[in-house]
Amino acid sequence: MNIFLQLYKPISTMGYVAIALLIGGVILVTVLAIDYWYSRAKDKPLFRNFLTNKKLDKNQIAVLKSEFSFYQNLSPELQKQFEHRVASFILKKEWIGREELLVTDRHKVLISAVACMVSFGRRNYTYRLLDYILIYPSEFYSKIAEDHHKGEFNPKNKSLVLSWKHFEHGFRISDDNLNLGIHEIMHAMHIEAKVGKDIDSARFMKHFKLLMLRLHDEDLKRTLDQTQFFRAYAFTNQYEFMAVLVEYFFESPDHLKQHFPVVYTHVNKMLNLKFLGY
């Protein structure tokens, strides 16, 4: 017994900390490896949320309940996730009114809700290339394009610029396949995916490239071009194509699925919204 006591040395507090850190590190590496394998094998993230602790106040929730049908159709659990994401988006962005427009909670909630709707299937949903939201009452003059615009995403300045009049028009009329908010937010998501290294970006670019390959089929491209689905400028560049396509995905999903099922499937997988019944 005396020999055992002489050999035994209690582990110090720092020793326990080191062991805990080692075990934690092993668990983290294992979880990340499983997540990576799952996302590659299943074409979607293992989990979409880490925490859902941020809250909207009652007035902000009232805006969603009364004006945002996407939120209204979610289950109570998913509504809480959506509220957390909208609250996070609002907090992470700087909101700026132009031409004497006073930015209100309604502006913030509805613009954030559109952004979070498009990214609801993603783990990364706050748009890391976007820091500033500038809101004009109506059309504005863009110094970059040297023309009047209804909206634009500027990755260099990390800014989203919107005409509130036209944003609200697109938001109010949900079946005309014209939605300024979805359109400009998609530009932000697309550009982020091109430079991102996360699983959401990898999935986006995988299905985007598959879509581009499909468009090498001249019959498909001609059919798309001749239907009511695509506006005249949709094929001017890849960013416009994707922005217009996602407008249709949200506003006319049944029509897109019926007439262009392969295109619909790639967009659905790109956005990871199958769990919502899309």
Brief sketch in words of this structure:
The chain is of the alpha/beta class and 278 residues long. It has helices at 2-7, 13-42, 58-67, 69-72, 76-92, 105-118, 164-172, 180-195, 199-214, 218-226, 238-251, 253-259, 261-271, and strands spanning 94-97, 132-136, 140-142, 147-149, 151-154, 159-163.
3D architecture notes:
- The structure is a single chain.
- This protein has helices spanning 2-7, 13-42, 58-67, 69-72, 76-92, 105-118, 164-172, 180-195, 199-214, 218-226, 238-251, 253-259, 261-271, and strands spanning 94-97, 132-136, 140-142, 147-149, 151-154, 159-163.
- By secondary structure, it is α/β, with parallel strands linked by helices.
- The strands form two sheets. It has a four-stranded mixed sheet. Strands 3-4 form a two-stranded antiparallel sheet.
- Helix 3 packs across helix 6 (105-118) and helix 12 (253-259) crosses helix 13.
- The mean pLDDT is 86.
Helix and strand topology:
Elements: H1 2-7, H2 13-42, H3 58-67, H4 69-72, H5 76-92, E1 94-97, H6 105-118, E2 132-136, E3 140-142, E4 147-149, E5 151-154, E6 159-163, H7 164-172, H8 180-195, H9 199-214, H10 218-226, H11 238-251, H12 253-259, H13 261-271
Parallel strand pairs: 1-2, 2-6
Antiparallel strand pairs: 3-4, 5-6
